[in-house]
Amino acid sequence: MRILIARHAEDIGPPNDNKTRGLTVIGKKQAKKLSMVVKSFNPTHIICSTLKRSIETANIVSQFCDINIIENELLDEQFSGNINNNITFMNSKGYINSNESYNGGETYQDLTNRVEKLVIWLKSEFTPLNGEKRPVLITHGRLMTFLITEILGLPQKGFFLAIENTAYVIIIVSKKWRPMLVLPIPGNQYL
User: Cβ-count burial of 100 within 10 angstroms (0-12 exposed, 13-18 middle, 19+ buried)?
Assistant: First the structure.
């Protein structure tokens, strides 16, 4: 089985509400370019997070590929919590690290647990027993890093990737979900 995991296209960014931030004009162009890549991947499913920038990216891709999207909150960005009375998904220095947590937010361990649940869901939904399945996951940078390390069986602690807008990775897994090949591709953020 092949899985394509992509980061959403460029969004309008902070200080706008993280849940409702849509794509910029450049982000929409990036999503169209990503659509061509995804179409050549011959996807069977497109699954995205429930955050607007991911949904908008997935909608552009799904229209090009003529496949409906499935929203799944397991693919949402890490929620860092309440920092100085502001609801945020990251702190002022970037994402929270393994020693931080904020009021109401996901800890590093919470995110690890959520990614483990996501992999269990992927394994149950996309077993290669019923023919070749090629899911496309459109998500967020931090979650992508955790998901890649989980699938590859690497420790998450200390493993960080700088994942640009619309960067993607194709992971080929065996019937027993052992990774056989990983093809990382940089995004098209420099339009």
Answer: middle
Cβ contacts of 190 within 8 Å, gap of 6 or more: none
Give the other-Cβ count within 10 Å of 30's Cβ. Answer: 26
The answer for residues whose C-beta is within 8 angstroms of residue 49's C-beta and 6 or more apart is 8, 55, 71, 72, 73, 75, 76, 77, 138, 139, 140, 143
The order of strands in the sheet holding 168-173 is 69-71, 45-48, 135-139, 2-7, 168-173, 179-185
Q: What is the pTM of this model?
A: 0.86
DSSP codes, 99-138: T---BTPPPHHHHHHHHHHHHHHHHHH--GGGS---EEEE
Identity of the residue numbered 48: C
pLDDT tens digits for range 135-166:
999 999 889 988 988 888 887 666 666 788 88
- Any idea what DSSP says for residue 77? P
- Residue carrying structure tokens 């361990």: 109
For residue 95, the 8-state DSSP code is S
Domain ranges of the chain: 2-170+179-185
Give me the CATH code for the 2-170+179-185 domain, please: 3.40.50.1240
CA distance 82 to 90: 10
